[in-house]
Amino acid sequence: MADKIDIVIPWVDPSDPVWRKEKEKYSTNATNQEDDRAIRYRDWDNLIYVFRSIDKFAPWVNCVHFVTYGHLPKWLNTDCTKLHIVNHKDYIPEKYLPVFSSHVIELNMNRIEGLSEQFIYFNDDIFLLRDTKPTDFFRDGLPCDVNIPNLIVPNLTNFSPIVFNSVGYINKHFSKRNSMKSEPLKSFNPRYGFTGFARALLFAPWSGYTGFFNHHLAVSYLKSTLDEVWNKEPEILEKTCLHRFRNNEDVNQYIFRFWQLASGKFAPNTLHGRYFKISTDNRKIISYIEKKKGRMICINDDEFHGDFEIRKQEINLALKKLLPEKSRFER
Question: pTM of this prediction?
Fold first, then answer.
């Protein structure tokens, strides 16, 4: 049915000896353009709270497609009727396997068997904190999102060439000025708040897209959007999928989100969560969880090089207090 909403969650178990052995075999050939850092695969040991949050705060979800190399957490209830376990080889074309890049795993999501037209992409560091409704993610069959402009500034310390690449392909296919004229309320919308409205005015003179504000939260997608991008830009998607590790020449799943925004295939909505990076002081993160300040939270550790185990334990304790009860996804 068209109103079904699924969730896709990819996960990797870096302790799996089979996975590690295969990864090491290909790591020796990684180039300077590729990102093979161990930090990309670090496990928080809190995936159980991702599932508990979905079960408690989004019981209306049709199915959770859990995507892995083949390893599964010991606590997972594989008989759960709302769970679809997906191995990479079940949906990713053989010529791209084995793969150790999240980009390839994301770009092929539309090939997952049984995936609904409306689905939400979760990373394993995103947790729901409050009750949600389907209309928080989809309205009138369209994915909810914010179309707030951003400026991608190339520099040597904080620049994402992958996002830059994705925006380039959006400008190839869409005219920002035409989009603003045809559907102005999708560019200038009170739901985006004062800051979003001010950004839209500030960036209005630019004829092309300079970037899109990334909220780093769960993203609502139409499966047909992924199909369309594969049809219109097969070369860059194919090139990305042939990289076993993240590569600076890649695009990632944001090309699909940006495509939806530029084409107007979305419903304007307010942000309902917040993105954090862990540090040596995580009191704001813990407070956000304990007080349930938003509907969801993303807790990222990509650039953290301190005592990860201590930070992990304090954040997981806050998640455990919020979500102490077992879910249907657990044995």
Answer: 0.93
* Residue 315 to residue 295: CA distance in whole angstroms: 17
Q: What is the CATH number of the domain that holds 54?
A: 3.90.550
Per-residue pLDDT at 176: 93
- Residue 70: phi and psi, rounded to 5, are 140, -20
Q: What would the mean pLDDT of 77-103 be, rounded to a whole number?
A: 97
Query: What total of structural domains would you count in the chain?
Result: 1
Residue 108 makes CB contacts below 8 A (sequence gap 6+) with: 91, 92, 93, 96, 241
Query: Does the structure show a pLDDT above 60 at 115?
Result: yes
Q: Residue 139 has what pLDDT? A: 96
What SS3 state is found at 248? coil
**Residue 308: domain span:** 5-147+215-322
Kindly state whether residue 177 falls inside one of the protein's structural domains: no
Our CA angle for 139, 142, 147, nearest 5°, is 100
